[in-house]
Amino acid sequence: LNEQIKSLPLNGRDFTSLVYLTPETRRESQRGYISISGQRGINTNVTVDGVDYNNAFFGGQYGTAEGRAPLAISQESIKEFAVITNGASAEFGRSGGGFVNVITKSGTNDYHGSAFYYWQPQDLASDPPVGEKLDQEKKQFGGSFGGAFVKDKLFFFTSYDQQDQSLTIPIDPRVLDADIFAKYPVLASPPEYVQTRDGRVFFTRFDFFASPQHRFMARMNYGDYEGINGTSTSPTRTESYNGIEGMFSRSYVASYSGTWSDNLLNDFNFQYVLEDTPRRDKGLGLPDIQVRGIGNYGEVSFLPITSTADRTTILSTLFRNVPMGSSIEMTPWLS
């Protein structure tokens, strides 16, 4: 399964594209979240290595910036995943819809690595069913490397994935009214604007087998994203009537899995997530002007917005004939 996920030709190398091959699963059109069994995407619970990976404020997963970021975890880092549409056990919880469990890669006794580079120029983009093809370009590159510091004991795996994308959006000629721009020069706009969607993720993981019965794991996933003119792709907005979207996400996980006796097992997980999602305006100090039936001028009124998620999760599951578990979560929010 690991090699199948790695080699599949996914657009943007986003592993969630594989999730949508599961019956009753689709991608939400508004924010791009995973919808299962007709439920809203914010009701889908996603865990990575057994730990909750959901943004408690916006919904969806960490590192997605409400669906604007290209990817949250690199395809290079995914070992396997499972989709549960219904009937999940109580330990998964926090799910009014379905459940997606993701397991990341670890190192092995053999050194192994990979590298990739993808380029999607304008000429290779297909024509849309309606309208003209927009000027666009996408580049994506990265790689991975893993192995053992100490064979059969201490392993490592790391990966990097970067995507740079640009899309040129022409503005409706009705919005580019010369009389309006002559009377109010501060509202003047070029005939088109370029929207960027640049993101990168860095992942690293360490595994230590103290003995056949006791195993420790630590991993980190770092992601950032910037989208100039990323608030909207509408052709009825001037260049200034848009925003600069951003996201900086850091996730740290430590876990212990131990077998204490023939019928007593313990799985302990600790996670700390810090995620900033700044959404900025153009800083021009212009009002929000909306002309019905024509377009929008000035600056977006609801920007700037900044939110910070600072979340700590402690989860322990004890198996002794009947599984017993406990979870502690602390989620302060600053906005």
The 3D shape can be described as elongated
Radius of gyration: 23 Å
Low-confidence stretches: none
Largest sheet: 11 strands, antiparallel
Helix content: under 10%
User: How many domains make up the 3D coordinates?
Assistant: 1
**Helix vs. strand class:** mainly beta
Work out the helix count.
Answer: 3
Query: How many strands?
Result: 19
Task: Report the mean per-residue pLDDT as an integer.
Answer: 84
Please indicate the percent range of residues in DSSP E strands (runs of 2 or more): over 45%
Strand and helix order? HHEEEEEEEEEHEEEEEEEEEE
Kindly report how far apart the N and C termini lie.
41 Å
InterPro entries: Oar-like_b-barrel, Plug_dom_sf, TonB-dep_rcpt-like
Protein name: TonB-dependent transporter Oar-like beta-barrel domain-containing protein
GO cellular component, one term: cell outer membrane
GO molecular function: siderophore uptake transmembrane transporter activity
Structure in words:
The structure is a single chain. The chain is mainly beta. The chain has one domain. The chain has three helices and 19 strands. The protein has helices at 2-7, 16-19, 178-183, and strands spanning 25-27, 34-36, 45-48, 51-52, 78-84, 99-104, 112-120, 135-150, 154-170, 192-196, 198-211, 214-228, 244-261, 264-280, 288-291, 295-298, 305-320, 322-330, 333-334. Strands 7, 8, 9, 10, 11, 12, 13, 14, 17, 18 and 19 form an eleven-stranded antiparallel beta sheet that branches. Strand 1 and strand 2 form a beta hairpin. The longest helix is centred in the first third of the chain and has 6 residues, at 2-7. It is elongated, with a radius of gyration of 23 Å. The relative contact order is 0.13. It comes from Thermoanaerobaculum aquaticum.
